[in-house]
Give the backbone structure.
Amino acid sequence: MLERYEIVPVPTRILTVHDNIVEAIKEFGKDKIGPNDVVCVAESVVAITQGRAKRPEELTPCFLSKVLSQLFPSQGSIAGWRSMQALIQVEGKARILFAVFFGILTKCVGISGVFYRLGGEQAKLIDDVTGTMPPYDKHIVYGPDKPAEVAAAIARETGAYGAAVADVNDLKRSFVLGVSPGVNGEEVAEILINNPFGNASQKTPIVIIKNYRKA
């Protein structure tokens, strides 16, 4: 299926809290977006433009965050004291303890991923430091707010067939957080599986799936 689609990266400058993601897409992608296309944007960039990034020093880790963070693989986004503290502040101590408890129990019987299903949306979405583009590689970035509404606004304002906010990485993990009406999120996630985004020096946090509607 992937061969049916042409994917066009859209270069931008570094986008910050001072930018509006819809206006930025219109500015940098206006000559590339057609009426049959789907515009996709990296979730971390959407979150950054929404002001959902914190410096680690703004967070004071409690005893619980120091203990629970040790239960997660060192390369994970919530393995750090402060990123775990960020999660606890958003989702609450009770919910995170509940998710950890049942996550451990179910892992003992061979079921994985339960913590991320029970720990709230941000358990899957928080990016620890180095998880995104400079200068925000020195920030903890939460997942975006109302991604489906963001996608709908992008589609409406750009004239594209549709839009999607996606969380994709180089480990073949592709997840679509929100889409505009008429777009199949699971299909878009599969199309983006090879991670065409470039959130670092490439400065291509926006990609266009050309002629999605026709395909």
Q: What stands out?
A: The chain has a mean pLDDT of 91. The radius of gyration is 18 Å. The chain is about 35% helix and 15% strand. The CA atoms of residues 95 and 119 lie 6 Å apart.
